[in-house]
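Hi, here's the filled form for the chain we discussed.

Project: internal
Contact: R.S.
Residues: 159
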Amino acid sequence: MSDAADSSPDDYIEVEFLRPDAESDYWPYRIDPLDFSYRAGLYGRADGRQAELAFLCGKGMRKNGPPAVIGFLRLGEKGAAAELPDGERARAAMVMLLSASRAVAAELGCLAESGLPAELPEPQPYTAYRRPPSLKALEKDFTGREPAGGAPKGASGDT
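And the returned structure, exactly as it came back:
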């Protein structure tokens, strides 16, 4: 068994969840042709190094900010997963992130609204990727008012 002192950050899998604010722009306009897109939650994307998965989660959230949570999983550069081809590494990363995301959504009480499937669907070609609604639009739908910072210029109806 190896000692923790012998390990480096490249040996680990890092998982992080955050709740973005409406000013954030986490949704890529398009994804790289080498990325894999998944129809899970609001947005799913993976490559051979990392996976991202965003899902709806309004239950238990404060009534400001978009009702979304974004999960990130980064794979280490060593270990069994490092020996897999990029497509298999991407799928492995997304399977792990989906499982963690479902656990987080269940703990927050929003699994039913999250859009996270029990099993990972097959990846879509990058050309099938569709950018989800903006975080500002999600916040407006959730709160019934414009996000902090107000409506965009020219949106007030003034001429």
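Let me know if anything looks off before we file it.
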